[in-house]
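Model it.
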Amino acid sequence: MRLRPTLFSLAVLILGLAATAMAQDEGIPKLTGTWEATGYHMHDQKNGFNHANEKATMVIAEQQDRVFHGDVRWSGKFTGKDTFSGVIDKNNADFYLAGHSDGLRLGRLEGPDKLVFYFLAPGGTNPRAGYVEYRRVK
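Modeled.
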C-alpha cells in the first residue's frame, strides 16, 4: 500500500518540475519578425557624426530558445546589409548580436515591441560606434 503514496508524490514532483520549466521558457522574449529603426546616431572615422535621413530594417528570421539569427539593412547616405547571430541574456532584457561581416551589437529590450542596440566596429578601415532604436512592425 505504500506504493500509492509514493507514486502520488512522484507525480506531484514531476508536474512541479514541468511547470517550473514551462514558466522559465515563457520568460524568454520572442524577437522574430520585422523591426524598423525609429532613432539613429553614429560616429565613424571617415565621415564623423551621422544621424539624419537613415533608414534601417532588421528582420529576425528564426529563434530557438535564447538564440536567434537574421539580417539588418540600412539605406540613406550609406547603403548596406549584414547578417547576424544573436543571443538573449538570462535577464531576458539584454541581448548580443555578432555581425557575420561587420561589428558587434549590444542591445536592450525596452518593451515587447521596442528595443535599442549599440553598434561597435573597432579597428579596420572605418572604426565606428553608434546606436539604433527599433520598433516591431505589426
